[in-house]
User: What shape does this take?
Amino acid sequence: MQELPKAYDHSQVEDKIYKMWLESGYFNPDKLPDSEKREPFTIIMPPPNVTGTLHIGHALFATIQDILTRYQRMQGKRALWLPGTDHAAIATQSKVEADLYKKERKTRFDFPREEFLKLVEAFAQSSHDTIVGQLKRLGASADWSREAYTLDAPRTLAVRTAFKRMYEDGIIYRGSRIVNWDPKLKTTVSDDEIQYVEQKDPFFTFKYGPFEIGTVRPETKFGDKYVVMHPNDQRYASYKHGQKIELEWINGPLTATVIKDEAADMEFGSGVMTITPAHSAIDFEIAQRHGLDIEQIIDDRGVLLPIAGEFAGQHIKKARAAIVEKLKNKGLLVKTDEHYVHNVATNSRGGGIIEPQIKEQWFIDVNREFTMRHSEIAGIQTGQRVTLKQLMRHVVSEGLVKIIPGHFEKIYFHWIDNLRDWCISRQIWYGHRIPVYYCKQGISNEGQQPDSSSSCSQQIVSTQDITQCPNCNGPVEQDSDTLDTWFSSGLWTFSTLGWPDENAKDLKMYHPTNVLETGYDILFFWVARMILMTTYHTGQIPFKTVYLHGLVRDKDRQKMSKSKGNVIDPLGVIDTYGTDALRFALIFSTAAGNDIPLAEDKIKGMKHFGNKLWNIARFIMTNVPASDYKFEAKTEADKAILEALAKTTDTVTKHLDNFMLHEAAQEIYQFVWHELADIYLEKSKEQFKDEALKINTEKILLHQLIWSLKLLHPFMPFVTEHIWQLLKANGLASTDLLMVAQWPTSTRR
RNA sequence: GGACAAUUAGCUCAGUUGGUUAGAGCGCGCCGUUCACAUCGGCGAGGUCACUGGUUCGAGUCCAGUAUUGUCCACCA
Assistant: This one.
């Protein structure tokens, strides 16, 4: 036996071991020994955004998924962990735009669309390379031969096919609706992407005819010609619905109409409000209920339109003070509350304050009935009429898709019940362009609605690029909008497996997938949308289990952020303590769905554990000459440790089967350190002195080590594989790679 | 306003069908380095499991309420 170093040095081991795994080809489940006999097990990796580098949260998901994959592979499954990255439309584009502005003071409108996209693609590519490199350092046993990108050719075909089918079923429609408009990024964002930020603003009360109305936004009030009050409000009982009232307003006299609607809150202010339907979702709904006029006041850039009279052309931010001043001079300002705190909607994807606008957009109708083309979902028949909402609810309420931890199911149902149509079009450039073409035949003026008498058809949805109208050969123009990034992400479990080819080998073998592992923060964005898309398009569930992890926080439970300076860089940690230590620290004592406080001390402690294991192995290897496994329990200590190992094996297996990774980790940690090392190893030194026990004791030790390595491998793949290779070199281990060794089973079961 | 969680050792957290003396990591005190490991070993201190009531032979665990903290959803003009 060669001389082994006293301390385990991860930096000499990890790259070498990862390379060995790669060369084995076993990350690809089809190349595993006897792959044909194995039952498939699939995890599709949530694709990290190509917006830079990985943070500690990515290290967590990579660790959990790798543990599950390695465990199932050792259990004899045909284990596929399919990796990929996400183009993250808005996030990536706005990152590039921000850099561009910072460096060159330019915006995307200073470039032709194609040229700008090349800049974004170059950035995305370099981010991608960094991210894949980082995942490899984390030990990810993912099948890189199947790597996917949400914006590559196969995924583009899937997106366009999905769009076309939904369009033909009438589930995707185009309509004029009030949307969340971000004037800074000049795009719409979905309801879920909005983040409310508390802000203090002056709250003005104005005289509006016989009423008093309150607002923080006088600049939207030019067109307010409806005054709304609750039908039961006794203070205003003398005013009748539809009654006209002459009054003086910002730019002169105005005829206002009284509207009685229950949306008015009697408790708030005077109980009377005016509405601005074009720039407020609630007001828009009221206007629709009563068939009121809707007038745009503010344009896409946040500039006032001609309706504002003398203020037209001014930006709303600047105009506000002047408008208040004018109203004050006219004697219409009653009072100003300078300390009014309210929530302002902002675009969470790095954008600005949301200004609702009425826009022509594409939507997915979640309440429209359609016919299931094909269904393998229990309780849903092929040919049955259903809505997307019903499908999304069904698969979870029937337990076909199980969410861990369970209480998130309630949150999921609550979200579905309140779900409105999903706005899927975005006015940005980076992403999947909407596959709709408008026939321009017979249309003279750009931008005008096609005239049906001179144009063959209004719009064509195509899965391939086209330049001519298939009906009349006239010129076509593609819709300039792109799709919400979650549209393509929603197809992820099956677009990565060969869909829309319904006979694709991978799709048949690996779908539905087994586990989706992701953060609870994207339950709605992503998990729900995958369920929507998958049930609709494939008639299957996307996954059987959803395992939600928490957010990694610092030791004071603070969210990690660059501005707070409390960010733990995974690569720095790996350099100092090793991947195994980081992985073990991340899952040790962290239950599903709970946030994880991570302190450097914890990682350090786990490095010590890796070293402990190393020295246990060193002791055993230098004392064990033989390789056969026939031993018996001769002493009380022998009996105790064999029983403890069997119990540990059962418990670790049970916990892994139940996704209790932290419990499994604690169990194996406890056993290796405090039972094997502290007790039996010490006892063995005594037993070595007795010739009648010596050989038997050595064999028991080897058995203990081999099982411990196996139980620990999913958690700490590098050090365990490294020790395994040393055992193998000395004829003490049989399987080539620990990675594909068989998971132990105790005889107790 | 609505919903969902959490409250266990000095700190950060585990504790899945209710069952002996409630655990871990870090930290703390004392002792110990020829003999796998000082990235170590041995011994030890430290908890009325937020509070109140209920169910039970038995409750950290189940139920109801209270308090505090956190998260999510909705959003008031």
About this structure: The CA atoms of residues 30 and 78 of chain A lie 7 Å apart.
